[in-house]
Design brief:
By secondary structure, the protein is α+β, with helices and mostly antiparallel strands. It has 8 helices and 10 strands. The chain has a domain at 4-112 and 172-226: Cyclic Phosphodiesterase, Chain: A (Alpha-Beta Complex), CATH 3.90.1140. It has helices at residues 16-25, 48-51, 53-58, 76-88, 115-127, 137-144, 150-159, 181-194; strands at residues 4-9, 27-28, 33-34, 62-68, 93-102, 105-110, 171-173, 200-204, 206-212, 219-226.
């Protein structure tokens, strides 16, 4: 199969949030290295490799434009050039985040609704779409296993992913699905302690292009582009 690409939010790879999250997951997709896990005495009986297998493969991120193959005639360099220009036209914004439950998964989520994030995600869905090849029948069937609503199904067919626009939920996944309620609460408590110093107000200031060489390969950061537009001044 062809390589896949994704438009993700990734924190500053020099920052504490990135480095701590990569340590928790056991892999840094920016530096393309494995990471030593932090000491987690409260989870000594838990297989952390198994608990984090899926998010480790994707790399720490929040999905903005879900993985896609390049449209016919498009090239990697064009995608990267477009992403650079896209980032130059956007302004940083701040919103509070923290480890929370997302169904049976655990993830960094927004502490409150954030219009800037919603607008950012919608812009990524729309503006990067010319680079996306149409979904294969395999991927359409795979997505439909999730029992999509008619509106989600229509958005999947038009934009390549069902959970966008009003169904978008910002999240940076930290675990696989955890069906045991007691274990999920225990892991969440441990994550809140681990990430205590990086939870709260977070500056969103860039967008990243990730690449997956094939469906069995991990995602890696190709390049992260910082926002460089000035924020609009508040009215007097």
């Amino acid at each position: 199969m062809s390589a896949r690409y994704a438009v993700y939010y990734a924190p500053d790879p020099q920052g504490q949030l990135w480095n701590l999250a990569c340590a928790w997951l056991g892999r840094d997709p920016h530096r393309k290295t494995s990471c030593a896990r932090p000491d987690m005495p409260g989870l000594a009986d838990v297989d952390l490799d198994a608990l984090t297998a899926s998010p480790r493969g994707y790399g720490f991120h929040a999905t903005l434009k879900a993985p896609f193959e390049l449209a016919e005639g498009r090239r990697e360099v064009e995608l990267l050039d477009f992403a650079e220009g896209f980032a130059k036209g956007r302004s940083p914004f701040t919103a509070a985040i923290s480890p929370q439950a997302l169904g049976r998964f655990l993830a960094f989520r927004l502490d409150a609704p954030c219009p800037e994030m919603s607008a950012f995600a919608a812009a990524c869905v729309k503006e990067f779409d010319p680079f996306r090849a149409p979904l294969s029948e395999f991927d359409i069937a795979r997505r439909r296993k999730a029992d999509l609503t008619p509106a989600q199904d229509a958005r999947m067919l038009q934009w390549g992913y069902p959970y966008i626009f009003e169904d978008f939920r910002f999240h940076m996944t930290l675990t696989n699905r955890i069906d045991d309620d007691s274990l999920r609460e225990r892991v969440l408590d441990a994550l809140r302690q681990l990430f205590a110093y990086v939870s709260g107000p977070h500056r969103f200031d860039g967008v990243a292009i990730y690449r997956q060489a094939d469906r069995d390969a991990p995602f890696e950061v190709m390049q992260r582009f910082g926002f460089s537009a000035q924020a609009a001044a508040s009215p007097a």
